[in-house]
Amino acid sequence: MKTTPQSDTTTEGIRIQAIAEFVPHESEPGNRRFVFSYRITMTNVGEQPAKLLSRHWIIVDGEGRREDVRGRGVIGEYPRLLPGESYSYKSFCPLSTEWGTMEGNYTFEREDGGRFLARIGRFFLVPGSPRLTVQSPSV
């Protein structure tokens, strides 16, 4: 199994790239608080517009405890992606263990009202990962 702090998946023309990084200045290992930032870039590589409606994250810590996080939009926004457009945002995930994983999906809606789940591939939250950047898609 791949244990990298990044993932790249495409579902129904929506490409989701994720990358995580440990944030030492926000973490307190002695108090079992490990903070990770993550950046998500979603790109419409398909031929139809799509609007993000909601999110579902599955967060599993290093001891196997699972937390499901559901909500509307992302960081208070509901991006609408035309073909070839991208949208990025950054957020944070605190854990009580030194490592964990994140994965999930976004619910998107097409102009005709049809909805689908765009998969967010599993990525690892691990200290000591090299600082990485999400590559711009070549559309």
What is this structure, in a nutshell?
This protein has a single domain, classed as Sandwich (Immunoglobulin-like), CATH 2.60.40. It has no helices and nine strands.
* CATH topological fold name: Immunoglobulin-like
Shape-level CATH architecture: Sandwich
What's the average pLDDT?
92
Distance between the termini: 29 Å
Beta-strand segment tally? 9
Rg over CA atoms, rounded to whole Å, is 15 Å
Biggest pleated-sheet summary: 5 strands, antiparallel
- Which percent bin holds the helix content? under 10%
Series of H and E elements: EEEEEEEEE
The shape is elongated
Assign the CATH superfamily: ApaG domain
Summarize the structure in words:
The chain has 139 residues and is mainly beta. Helix content is 0%, strand content 57%. The strands form two sheets. Strands 4, 5, 6, 8 and 9 form a five-stranded antiparallel β-sheet that branches. A four-stranded antiparallel β-sheet has the order 1-2-3-7, with no helix packed on it. Strand 4 (50-61) and strand 5 (66-72) form a beta hairpin. The relative contact order is 0.32.
